[in-house]
Amino acid sequence: SAEFSGNVSGSGPYYAFYPYSEDCSIVDGSLRFSLPQEQNASSGTFGQGASPSVATLGDLSVPAQFKNICGLLEVNLCGSNLKLSRVEIIDPSGAPLWGDCTLALDGKQGSDEQSMTITGGSNRITVNLDKTYSLLASTPRVIYAAVPQGSFSHGLSVRAFDGEGKAIAFLTTQSGDVKIQRSFITSTVVRE
Description:
The relative contact order is 0.25. The termini are far apart. Helix content is 0%, strand content 47%. The chain is mainly β. The chain has no helices and 15 strands. The chain has strands at residues 14-18, 25-27, 30-35, 38-41, 53-57, 67-68, 71-78, 82-90, 99-104, 116-119, 124-135, 141-147, 157-161, 167-173, 185-191.
C-alpha cells in the first residue's frame, strides 16, 4: 500500500508509474522511462524498485491497480565452491535488457499484447548482491532479475564475479529457450 500525491489538471485517464522517476514522461500516448543497467538484490529476492509497474486510473477516487511491465527471471546458480558478489546476465540473441523504454498506453497495460520498445541499452544487465554468497554444486543459489517480456529466446548466460570484481565463472542454461512473460516468474538453472 502506498499513497501518491500531486496536482492534477484536466480529465483522465491518469497514469502512475513505480518506482518513482523524474525522467518518466508521457509523450504521444506512450509512457517513456528507463530500465536500469544494474539491479541490486539479495539472494532469494529481487531488489526494491527493480520491477517497474504502471497503473491506469479513470477515476482518482478508485484505488490504483498496478500492472507489472516486466517479468522476473529466477536464476538458480550452481557452481564449485565459488564466492560471488555480482552476476552479469546475458541474452545471447542480442535482445536489449535495459535502456530507454517506450510503452504504449493503449489499454493493454499489463497484458502480453502491450507494446514496448527499448533503445540505447544492451543485452547485458548486472545484478549486484547485498553480500558475497557461496555457490555449491548441489544447492542452487537463487537470484532474481526484472527483465523485459520476450527476453532469452535463445537461452541465457551468466558471468559470476567475486568480491574484487574478478570474473570467476561463466555459466550457461541447460535449456535453449527461457520464455519471459510479463508478471510471471520464469525459473532456470545455470551450471558451471
